[in-house]
Please model this.
Amino acid sequence: KGFGAAYGTAKSGVGISIMGVLRPELVLKNVVPVVMAGIIGIYGLVVAVLLSGGRKSFLKLFFKIFDACLSESTVKQQMSLYASFIQLGAGLSVGLSGLAAGYAVGVVGDAGVRGSAQQPRLYVGMILILIFAEVL
Model:
């Protein structure tokens, strides 16, 4: 998820910087693509919490790992091969879809903020496309 969010933030940020030279009063209004790109990274965290919550609560697992790091012992969890592949598949699907969504948000955000600087009526269309790209 991190790569998609980072790309979307960087690409949209470039568009906002270029647009800010022409119309500096629209910079705060057009920061929406950067926020939406950042939200993409949160989906990976949600999936990690859901996957770990099926076995134990997330906080108990966090404190167990934290205590193990302090005591220099290893954390051993027994998990079947089937469950391991299920979690691997969930992580890959969330990660790759986040990469694609971040790319889409970045491209649409860059072009959208540049276009909305020249034609303000494009703003609503850009927001709708960003919403659909985020749900991708």
Remarks:
- Residues 81-118 form the longest helix (38 residues).
- DSSP finds five helices and no strands in the chain.
- The mean pLDDT is 82.
